[in-house]
Amino acid sequence: MFIGEYLHSIDSKGRIIIPAKFREGLGERFIITKGLDNCLFVFPEKEWGIFEEKLKQLPLTSRDARAFIRLFFSGAAVCEGDKQGRMILPANLREHAKINKEVVTIGVSTRVEIWSKEEWEKYNEVANLSYDAIAEKMAELGI
Q: Largest CB tally within 10 Å, which of 25, 70, 78, 113?
């Protein structure tokens, strides 16, 4: 399980530090792809496989399903951390997430998300304002 929030900088080679608490859970190889809300999703290989199976169940006759699957898989890359615990963020993914310098890495249960610091702060401003309303909706869903 991934939890927590960590702030790091991206270096001139496009590398970021993977927080030590996330390294073991991600394993030696992991998958990074375009996430939702202007962030990147990072999945351990096992979790990627589980999510991939769910996507395979979507009907190919659905235009939205095809579009989502295309965008999700076309942006994906297999990554490995180096001995210093860093990973290279591919340029297309940095662009998608608007990552320039400071990066926030968060744990979200079965995956890690990577955000530009600015996008994370913007997201939090809106989410914090509606946190109570979101909690009420989750309660309606039985969560």
A: 113
Among candidates 95, 65, 94, which has minimal Cα distance to 79?
94
Domain residue limits, the chain: 5-140
Cβ atoms 103, 9 nearer than 8 A: yes
Torsions phi, psi of 42, nearest 5? -125, 120
In this structure, the dihedral spanned by the alpha carbons of residues 59, 62, 68 and 74, taken in order and rounded to 10 degrees, is 80
What does the alpha-carbon distance between residue 89 and residue 112 come to, in Å, rounded to a whole number?
14
| pTM of the shown model | 0.92
Q: Please name the fold of domain 5-140.
A: Chemotaxis protein chec (3.40.1550)
Q: pLDDT by residue for the chain (143 residues), tens digit each?
A: 999 999 999 999 999 999 999 999 999 999 999 999 999 999 999 999 999 999 999 999 999 999 999 999 999 999 999 999 999 999 999 999 999 999 999 999 999 999 999 999 999 888 776 778 888 887 888 87
| Residue appearing with tokens 């990074």 | 32
